[in-house]
Amino acid sequence: MKILHVVQAYHPVKGGAEWLAQNLSEQMVQRHGDEVTVFTAAVTKPAYFWRNEGGPLPVGTETINGVTVRRFPVYRGLRWLRMLWAHGAHRFKLPYHDWARAIQLGPIIWGFAWEIAHQPADVIMASTFPFLHMQYAVAGAKRSGKPMVLLGAIHTGDVWGYDRKMIIDAVKQADAYLALTTFEKEYLVGKGVVPDKIHVIGGGVDVAPFVGGNGRAMRDRYQLADNPVIIVLCRHSELKRLDTVIAAMPHIWAQQPDAHLLLAGARTNYSAKLDQLIAALPPVQQAKIHIINDFPESEKPDLLAAADLLVHSSGNESFGIVFAEAWAAGKPVIGADVGALASLIDAGKDGLLFRYGDAASMADKVVTLLTQPAQRAAMGAAGREKVLANFTWEKVADKVRQVYLETISRHQR
Q: Which strand ranges, in their side-by-side order, compose the sheet holding 260-265?
């Protein structure tokens, strides 16, 4: 099968959508012998589309682990004008304000729809919204008559990014849609998308590295001894609501004074704000927060092994791959009681839910698990079983590939 994957960025770029596209592509090449080509923007970060964060990558074609990757140049001109147009059109609800926001976000790639239309492929899959390349892919597939599959990873809590008529219109035009959770499917059905078109696939994780994590090495490195350890794994972003975690820690220390927090993730422009929040704490409390910036992926299993539980403070996710990684490591999770996250956690069985944005609620759930080691172990074991049954890359890729085959067959009929 000849497959074209269209994604906003691709390896070596780090991010959930990039990791998903890479693993789906490589699974299909290595396990099924499919011919997979990836069309993507030549950038180090998608944020480079609309602001000065990240930079360009070389334009051209290369082969990465058997996958043909073609990177296209991005037009970055008129960024201030595009931003003013997008915000003004949205504020005054002008016609096509959703398109104004999409053009402001990008990527703008001249001739991209034509290239997609003329790429030999049995099926085209594009991911993820709200980026403009999704619309190029729909237009290219329509022009060529090729079957079109979309993977939107819709963050329903992000009104600016995802509450757009053009997104729903694109989903309705696609031959099939890949949803990461049942919550996402129900959201789209509520918007008028035909249920039979939507296939829930979940997110994928490579389980093996997480089984043998060396937690003692990390505890020794950060001088954690045998104290209780809470870990947060995410990039520094205002949307991740890391302020809730910092605000929850004094409540936790009131009952678990020896608890330590590992705050591990990619540093961003928001990191300065995070530093300020931590600096406002007393020095004795600051010493119990360990910021681990831009750690290598290879250290993630060791970091999770060092922790007693994982907390994810965000309410703006399409899946929450960090939960699957924690479960693969046998750790219980605590997440917000909203959206896709709440649909992923089986509360009381493999994790707990706190009231989104409520530091005291988060602290209460953390203390509950820190004081009940048997419950932590049972939840971690249940989580690992869930991952093995549903969220390995092999299982996710096979679900996606079956959707491709069925979509091609329907299209031919």
A: 289-293, 260-265, 229-233, 309-311, 333-336, 351-354
DSSP label at 212? T
| Mean residue pLDDT across the chain | 96
CB burial readout 163-202, b (16+ within 10 A) else e: bbebbbebbeebbbbbbbbebbbebbeeeebeeebbbbbb
* Total domains in the fold of the chain: 2
Write out the E strands in 337-408: 351-354
The parent domain of residue 190 ranges over: 2-204+392-412
What tens digit of pLDDT does each residue of 144-195 get?
A: 999 999 999 999 988 999 999 999 999 999 999 999 999 999 999 999 999 9
223 plus 168 within the same structural domain: no
Q: Render pLDDT for 14-67 as a digit per residue (tens, 0 to 9).
A: 888 999 999 999 999 999 999 999 999 999 999 999 999 899 999 999 999 999
Residues 279 and 192 in one domain: no
> Do 242 and 355 sit in the same domain of this protein?
yes
Q: Do residues 288 and 326 both lie within one domain?
A: yes
Rounded to two decimals, the pTM is: 0.92
The DSSP secondary-structure symbol of 47 reads G
**Would you call 56 helix, strand, or coil by DSSP?**
strand
| Residue 340: CATH number of its domain | 3.40.50.2000
Do 87 and 147 lie in one domain? The reply is: yes
The span from the CA of 324 to the CA of 322, in Å, is 5
DSSP code of residue 115: H
Model pLDDT, residue 133: 98
- The two structure tokens encoding residue 392: 């390995």
Confidence of residue 235 (pLDDT cuts 50, 70, 90): confident
- What are the pLDDT digits (tens) for 371-381? 999 999 999 99
How confident is the model over 107-143, as pLDDT tens digits?
Answer: 999 999 999 999 999 999 999 999 999 999 999 999 9
Nearest alpha-carbon partner for 17 in 158, 175, 186, 131: 131
DSSP string, 221-253: HTT-TTS-EEEEES---GGGTHHHHHHHHHHHH
CB 334 within 8 A of CB 368: no
Residue 315 one-letter amino acid: G
266 has pLDDT over 90: no
- Those residues whose C-beta lies under 8 Å from the C-beta of residue 54, and which sit 6 or more positions away, are 43, 44, 45, 46, 47, 48
Same domain, 58 and 101: yes
Pairing of strands 309-311, 229-233: parallel
